[in-house]
Amino acid sequence: MKPTKFGIGAPMLRKEDARLITGTGNFLADIEVADAASAAIVRSPVAHADFRLLNIDDVRALPGVLDVITGADVANLGPLPCVGNMENSDGSMPDVPPYPILPESRVRHVGEAVAFVVADTLENAKAAVEQIDFDYDELPCNVDTAAALEKDVSLIWPERGTNVAFDTDHGDKVTTDAAFEEAAHIITLDLVNNRIVTNYMEPRGAIGEYDEDTGKYTLSVSSQGVHLVQPIIAENVLGIPRDQLRVVTPDVGGGFGTKYFAYREYALVLVAAKRIGQSVRWVGDRLEHFLADYHGRDNVSHAELALDEDHNFLGIRADVTANMGAYLGQMAIYIVVNGVAMIPGCYRTPCAYVRTRGVYTNTVPVDAYRGAGRPEATYLIERLVDKAALELGVAPEELRRRNFVQPDQMPFESPTSRTCDVGDFDKHMTAALELGDWENFPKRAEADATKGMLRGRGIATYIEACSGGGSEYANVILNTDGGATIQIGSQASGQGHETAYSQLASEYLGIDPDMIDVVQGDTDQILRGSGTGGSRSIPVGGSSVALSSERLAGRIRDAAGDILEAAPDDIELVGGNVQIKGTDRAAPLGDIVAKLPEDERRTHEDWQPSAPTYPNGTHLVEVVVDPDTGSIVIERFIVVDDFGVVLNPIMLDGQIHGGVVQGIGQAITERTIYDPETGQLLTASLMDYCLPRADEIPNIEIDTRNIPSTTNALGMKGAGEAGAIGACPAIVNAVVDVLHRNFGITHIDMPMTPERVWQTIESAKTNS
After folding, report:
1. What does the angle CA 50 – CA 55 – CA 61 come to, to the nearest 5 degrees?
2. How far lies 687's CA from each of 195, 310, 666, 690, 727, in Å?
3. What is residue 5's predicted lDDT score, i.e. its pLDDT?
4. Residue 351 Cα distances to 386, 396, 733, angstroms
5. What is the pLDDT of residue 767?
6. For residue 629, what pLDDT is reported?
7. What pLDDT is attached to residue 152?
């Protein structure tokens, strides 16, 4: 019998792709609910105002309208909570303003929901929305991150007397200031990490149902985890026990952190369903995504690096201002504060001090977006190190190599209290330089110059902390047909969980992955879960699957030993059979499973990591810039990563590709613009907000130099966010290389649109 290997390390094609790419997936908008009413939302046309809805009773009487819910109707509900609250530097807790399900009298950003209209058809609901008389007294607004701290700027929450939402710090200020006093060189850099709109393929949606006989609600929702939504909506908002709310999530068309959270609409469809006595469906459109879903990034920072005469790093200082929008999102404070702890990067800098302030503005709230704080930290340190190399006349790779934490210094605790267990940063950087033919770059640049084009190169190293936190639940059930079922608390939104978890179970049970079903997204079927975020699904959830599967394999061997008259250690599980090693004596797995008591056919695990994992790597980029137009073409993009043990190299490549493309978008094309006077979102559609296109994406060359993690049960390190973490600084460093060598420019902010690049070049020419 020749076994087929599907387990850890196998380049298995994704099981779910056949249905997802042939249109037979089951997404939120595909769910059919009998007699479902349709909902539409009245959204504020102004950024900051006291408002009144003048004709609600008249609108309720319109043909087809079943209900209109306003702030007064849901004033008894709890607000959306900020569950990621963290201490200020003085030990106090930030004062979290209320985030109501619907505001009663004041709006704080364009697009804020003010009323929820339910009708027999979507057309009637939308028509009723247009009839509502929204009367308002406009107030001064501010949408600028840096300006939020200015003395005379308008206040989003005037009763608090400040736009500062929180004020935290990391590191040792006294020691760091002393290091700067002794420095031979101090490098400074001011930079902007631009605001991003997620733009997943599937907009959010929700379907609410209420059973009057049982008093139980059902919420179907496009989310990153039903157990993330259930307690927020049930306990915090509706004030009911969580077991009175069933939450179901079908297939999900992208999440990237933004679907991790509970939103106003999720409570509103449930309230409406109870009020009208029938189910209620709301599916957002692309405009609502821009105006209502959490945005990402939006930091303004001042950074400083101190070095001695030999170019050794002595200390890092940073002052970070993070835009929170009009309200504090569910994990917003945690995302920012946790993220900046990674600012020391891959370097053995003795000391650091980072102050971080969150500020309110009249904009859409900001929360987790792919990488969730770590891309911002990596961008800051890798741009700062590159600027140091330019100013000191040192090769950027040599300055990094001189200051890397060395493998024999691991585990290494950073000055911001992050402890990396294993890594060899020089190894993957050197590999990237070799793959990129770094030494022969001048020849390529010279060839482009003869055509009037300017070639540049850049590198960025990164390290991030992920796959930590709490446990993940997995329940593995053996079936008498020889297959298995995995129930798990994570939620796929395109990552390939069905394939990944099936591979892990196959590793231990010897079952063809096609015989393994993966069940996610139902609080009635799955006891608990932590959802998908922080690159945890496979390192943490997968560890629970593996440990459960290994335990079941042991039970099978024990039972088979009696039947086949062999020691359990002499029995192997291969190809759906249980056999004695080195012989042809075997029995179908299903027959052995049938002999097990029913409670022995299943087992669950809630594996929890002792600490985060620390993926790390190097991105190398070559670009060609047209000085006459400012356009950028990425000629080469090389990534060399350390992800520890790799489950599936094909799926790993997909994760890196996706992250890199999102990094390319932020670096070059994606720009969120609010009008500074009115607070209007000027880039509120894909006609105005530019996503990267397929013809702008280079071939992404991928390699690994893996060192297994010591903090993960399988030796794995999270990979879902890494591409987005390293891409932005590498691309910007490459463009700055062009600008510095040809025009003396040492910095340009993202996004590096052709207009911005051209203006930067022209300004440098004028001032030269």
Report:
1. 145
2. 17, 51, 17, 7, 25
3. 65
4. 19, 21, 25
5. 87
6. 98
7. 92
Instruction: Beginning with the edge strand found earlier in the chain, give each strand of the sheet holding 586-588 in spatial order.
Output: 571-574, 577-580, 586-588
Residue 642: φ, ψ to 5°: -120, 105
- 598 Cβ partners below 8 Å, 6+ apart? none
- Domains annotated for the chain, with CATH where assigned, are 17-25+469-607 (3.30.365.10), 34-139+204-283 (3.90.1170.50), 140-193+296-396 (3.30.365.10), 421-467+611-768 (3.30.365.10)
Q: Which residues of the chain have pLDDT under 70?
A: 1-5
Q: In whole angstroms, what is the distance from residue 192 CA to residue 206 CA?
A: 35
Asked if residue 36 lies in contact with residue 278, where contact means CB atoms within 8 angstroms, the answer is yes
Any alpha helices (H) in 220-329, and if so which ranges?
Answer: 226-231, 264-276, 286-292
N-term to C-term CA, the chain:
76
pLDDT (0 to 100) of residue 500 = 98
Q: Which two tokens stand for residue 605?
A: 């695990």
Rounded Cα distance, 484 and 551, in Å = 14
Residue 540 has what DSSP assignment?
I
- 3-state helix/strand/coil string of 434-494: HHCCHHHHHHHHHHHHCCCCEEEEEEEEEECCECCCCCEEEEEEECCCCCEEEEECCCCCC
DSSP classification of residue 666: I
Distance CA 662, CA 507 (A): 33
The pair of structure tokens assigned to 79 is 């607000």
Instruction: Strand 313-325: give its sheet, edge to edge.
Output: 164-171, 351-360, 313-325, 296-307, 185-196
Report pLDDT digits (tens) over 357-403.
999 999 999 999 999 999 999 999 999 999 999 999 999 999 999 99
> Got the DSSP string for 669-726?
I----B-TTT--BS--STTTS-PPPGGGPPPEEEEE-----SSSTTSB---TTHHHHH
Output Rg (C-alpha) for the chain, integer angstroms.
27
The pairing of beta strand 351-360 with beta strand 313-325: parallel
Is 0.90 surpassed by the pTM of this model?
yes
pLDDT at 6: 80
CA distance 171 to 355: 9
| Side chain identity, residue 391 | E
What backbone torsions phi and psi does residue 713 show, to the nearest 5 degrees?
A: -60, -25
Contact (Cβ atoms closer than 8 angstroms) between residue 185 and residue 203: no
Q: Are 631 and 754 in contact (CB under 8 A)?
A: yes
pLDDT value of residue 1: 29
